[in-house]
Amino acid sequence: MKRPIVKSFWDETTGSWQYVFHDPATLKGAVVDPVLDFDRRAGAVTYGNADRILEYIAETGIEVVWILDTHPHADHFSAAQYLKQKLGAPTAIGEKVTGVQALWRDYYHLPDQPVDGSAWDRLFADGETFMVGDLEVSVMFTPGHTLATITYVVGDAAFVNDTFMMPDAGTSRADFPGGNSADLYASLQRILALPDETRLFVGHDYGPDGREPACCATVAEHKARNKHLSGDVSEADYRATRDARDATLPLPDLMLYALQVNIRGGRLPEPEADGRSYLKVPVDLFEPR
Length: 289
Prior knowledge:
Elements: E1 5-11, E2 16-22, E3 28-32, E4 35-39, E5 44-46, H1 48-60, E6 63-68, E7 77-78, H2 80-87, E8 91-94, H3 97-108, E9 122-124, E10 129-132, E11 135-141, E12 150-154, E13 157-161, H4 181-192, E14 199-202, E15 216-218, H5 219-225, H6 235-246, H7 255-262
Parallel strand pairs: 3-6, 6-8, 8-9, 13-14
Antiparallel strand pairs: 1-2, 2-3, 4-5, 4-7, 10-11, 11-12, 12-13, 14-15
């Protein structure tokens, strides 16, 4: 099994992990789930996270051939378009993103918003493969957290986004619009069917109980000690635990800001007559938590 080199980047503000992986033989690589910084109080977009990724790419001599999103994120803006402008690499996401676009177009009342996935250069289907150098990347449809979530499997690495957390934190929530705990359970089981030595790189970690943030555990480690799944947990028991936990969670701070950017593939809304972009916040769309 081939072993890509994986570099992780931590965003403390949103608890997000971003990745660059590459083929050591060809130095061709890809970026996964990059973060565009947004200061909610100032309404300001900055580029610290993305520029750290660019510095690493320049230092190591990697040729980036894909910029990959796993799903439209609710807790941060995607830096895919910013990196595309800098690197010239195409962007991609799973083909079910069109359903997320349609859902949030209606929530934001954006009748002119395209919902055909054209905000990305490529839409991947379940089971599709593509190459990064000599590395074959397989696309696995893993819904539940959202209705469009995909996992990228490359050699002994899988970028599992917001499905698994680290074993001591369990799994990710399934209560966002279009999410479903039954779908998430099925997706988790599909990921656990990968070889035991597969490294699962998660989308988020919040350092529970004061430990340092971490980003990777193997399939075998999740089978042995994932707090939501170890010990042959049934779908019914998992769903009861997941749904009860989700009912207590507040919505992400940036969700209503981020989704209108992320359904555009990481683009801000088109500037208005004064040359400035504006974000919409729907009032009373969700109940307070």
